[in-house]
Every structure is written in C-alpha cells, then in structure tokens.
C-alpha cells in the first residue's frame, strides 16, 4: 500500500467514525432545524409570500412569518395574507409561533416602506386598524411593539387599537374587531 493510499484509507475510516458527518450543512434554511419552541424570527431574504406568491421584501411593512411545530417557516407580504393562510389546515402541524414586523410609531403610516423592520411575537404586539393606507392590498393592519406606541398612532391617524386575537377575528370573518383595553 502506498503512502497516499494509506492516507486516503485513514481519512475515509475517520469519516465513518463521525455519524452524520456526511450530512452536515444539508439542512434547508426554510425548513428550520431548531425545535419550534426555540424558534425566533428570521430575515425573509428572497422568500415568496406563502399565500399569494409575491416577493415578501418588495411589499410594504408590516409583514409576517409563522413557524410550525415541525420547524417549517412561512413568510407573508401582509398580515392579512398571514391570517387567511392560518385558516387552512397545514401538513406541517400546528402553528407554534407567529411574528409580525413592528413599525416605528414616529413614522407616517401613509408613507409605506419596504425596509426591513424588527420582529415581535404577534401576541405581544399591539395593532391599529382603520388607518387608510395606500399601496397595500386588503385591510391595512399596523403593528407596533407596545400598546402605548399603537395608542399614539391610533390617536394621531384616527385608527383603533386592537389585539392580535381581534385582528385575526376581524380579518377572518370580515367584521369589526373589538378595541384593545
């Protein structure tokens, strides 16, 4: 056996001792490898909307994402699309986490932007409905990191403050959401 063939045999044997080494780095970034309980919000990159197929980054914020129990992550170009998508059964199991982009309360909601924003757990965010907004499809939903930020925007622009539960109910049923208390 030549020196180079002994070296190759040793390397091959060493790789066999490392279970799964041949699979390292083969996980899809969309599928997510962390258990859903440890999932956090992720940048949407070039993702397409799970509901309408539009490129998410090209649509104005706030946008959304959800993480299923199996770790699958789906992005949405609007919160309305996210809510509608959640109404359908999924082969990925239950939804474990919903994230929404939160807007800067100092920014004018009449000037929509496609710039990325921070993500917040939808259950912790506060929402404003009823503010007219151009360049968005469907009912405009504004998301903010805090209730006080959302209250200020609602007061300034004539909207109403609601919870994530109320947003889901209104968009799913088409009726008015109950104000947040």
Characterise this structure.
The protein has helices at 3-16, 79-86, 147-157, 164-173; strands spanning 64-68, 73-76, 95-101, 119-121, 126-129, 141-144, 160-162. The protein has 4 helices and 7 strands. It has one domain (27-173). The model is unreliable at 1-37 (pLDDT under 50). Strand 1 and strand 2 (73-76) form a beta hairpin. The strands form 2 sheets. The protein has a 4-stranded antiparallel sheet with strand order 2-1-3-4. A 3-stranded antiparallel sheet has the order 6-5-7. It is an alpha+beta fold and 181 residues long.
SS-based class? alpha+beta
| Rg estimate, integer Å | 22 Å
- Compute the number of structural domains: 1
Overall 3D form: globular
> What is the helix tally?
4
- N- to C-terminal distance: 80 Å
- Average per-residue pLDDT, rounded, comes to 80
- Uncertain runs with pLDDT below 50, 5 residues or more? 1-37
Main β-sheet, in a few words?
Answer: 4 strands, antiparallel
User: Quick one: how many beta strands?
Assistant: 7
């Amino acid at each position: 056996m030549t020196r180079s063939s002994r070296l190759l045999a040793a390397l091959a044997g060493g790789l066999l001792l490392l279970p799964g080494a041949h699979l390292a780095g083969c996980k899809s970034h969309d599928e997510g490898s962390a258990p859903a309980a440890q999932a956090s919000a992720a940048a949407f990159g070039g993702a397409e909307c799970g509901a309408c197929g539009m490129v998410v980054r090209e649509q104005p914020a706030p946008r959304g994402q959800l993480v299923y129990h199996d770790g699958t992550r789906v992005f949405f170009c609007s919160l309305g699309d996210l809510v509608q998508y959640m109404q359908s059964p999924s082969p990925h199991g239950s939804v474990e986490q919903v994230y929404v982009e939160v807007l800067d309360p100092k920014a004018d909601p009449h000037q929509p932007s496609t710039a990325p924003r921070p993500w917040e757990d939808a259950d912790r965010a506060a929402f404003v409905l009823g503010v007219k907004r151009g360049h968005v499809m469907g009912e405009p939903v504004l998301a903010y990191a805090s209730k006080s930020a959302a209250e200020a925007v609602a007061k300034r622009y004539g909207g109403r403050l609601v919870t994530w539960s109320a947003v889901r109910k209104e968009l799913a049923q088409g009726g008015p959401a109950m104000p947040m208390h």
